[in-house]
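User: what does the whole thing look like in 3D?
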Amino acid sequence: MTRFHIFRHGWKVLGAAFVIFLPLIVPEMKVHMATEVLVYCLFAVSFNLLLGYAGLLPFGFAAMFGVGAYAAALMFNHLGGAPLVVVMVVAAASGLVSALMIGAFCVRLGGTYFALLTLAFQMFFYAVALKWRSVTNGDDGIPVMRPELYLPGFGNLSLMNIHNLYWVTLFFVVLGILAAYLFLKTPLGNAVVCMRENEERAAFLGYNTYLTKLTVFSFAGLLAGLAGALYALFQEFVATTAIDANMSFAVVLMTIVGGTGRFSGPIVGAVFFMLFQDWISDITDHWWLYFGILFIVVVMYLEGGVSSLLNTSLIKRLLGRKALE
Amino acid sequence: MSALTLEHIYKDFSGLQVLTDISLEVEEGERHAIIGPNGAGKSTLFNLITGQYKPSQGTIRLMGRDITGRSVHKIARMGLSRSFQVINNFPKMTVFENVQNAIVSRCNKRFNIASFLDRSAKIHQHTEEILHSVGMMEAKDMTATELSYGWQRKLELALALALDPVIVMLDEPMAGLDVEETRGFMELIRSLTHGKTLVVVEHDMDVVFSLADRITVLSYGGILITGSPEEVRASEAVKNAYLGRNAGAAGGK
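Assistant: Here's the predicted 3D structure for the full assembly of 578 residues, as structure tokens:
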């Protein structure tokens, strides 16, 4: 083992420890923010399965996120006492089903048509959320009571405690991101990349391109639905903001700024997006303006996104190659 | 049994008649060449057989099974694979990964999520076998775009063969190669397609006449003649329509 390996693995262990013990280290306000960041990390990772790996750019990806959020909120309110895990699973499944419905129409198309048709479906879902007042409360939204989590050995944990909520969110987010990571290592995950690289050639090799794209779209929808459910849990409130165009574009922006070429790109992007928002909204009300400028700069001059600044070769260079070998 | 049967195939593109009454039988194990002047309909015929286009009329059978109008991927899975005239691979993937994509399909693991691709010994082994057979092992870690043009042509052949097809269809496999490369490549094709049914579209007459068991000559969307190289060489109609007056010398186009 070279010193560089030790450095790299040590860095990973330290990072993991920081994420796990974060609530014990930072002030409570920051734990709130970190919990929200986690939710967006999962959302962005699921989005990048499409943009980065399948080569699909859905402008309306918040549809699945919103469906998951509403599904969770309705279950928390109407099925009091349903175990948290059940709610999460059902919310993720609702994301999957809505993705299947939308994807069945959209993945036949490519490029701009795909992007815009997903946006059209999302606007449709948004309109339903806005107008179906008897279920969704329209603009006013649905307040959510965080349930207690029964954990064998620990008894009932209150999720009103932000530390507990952070760890529960972390658990589901890590589970979701791990699922995405492992998915990409399977033959099906490889087939998804073939769709991005050369769909026509893949078809002539026997790949059913429609089903392959529908599968990854649905899987991404499942993870987005889970992220939406965690969002509902964190916000204690779900309204149309969970399913509107802003949410769709936010995930596009954070993923592209983070970098679509790496698995960690969207995670870096989500963290960066939230930190930047937190920092600059103290200074100005027009934070979207500044993020927009940043977005342009990244797209034009930083091909691999912000995450490319964190890669090991750069760290190597900064710390001096010799010192580490 | 015929490996490939075309029965009265017609194809028109919104009124433009491209192929007229094409009937053709390719026997199992036969090397069949399709030639014809530019615009004769060779590529269209190729695309009809491989499922990219649907014929306006007629029936196409693969090993006796009707494949008319089936989708591209189903025809590929039934044992018909093709190469392309213009290089068509996975440009940013390595040579190994390119071939591996075909092997995954051949092993029916396209939708498998129960294993990791890089841990599958069977896929790894089959991929290396193909790379050995075309002599590309040394280039396996290069991306497809890094390859020289000649090697990209080889990769094109490797992708077609990796599916272990019943019928291999090669669309101008020598396109753009120089004389030296063409000779080597022809020997490679000859040895690798041994015992397989081969359908090839090619402009190089040296290749066509020395490789093919039978030749079909297309002209203006119809079949002029199907026969052995000797029969085709002797045909007055072919001389007039295509090869020019010195047909026997097998000159170029």
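In plain terms: Residues 134 and 158 of chain B are 7 Å apart (CA to CA). The radius of gyration of chain B is 19 Å.
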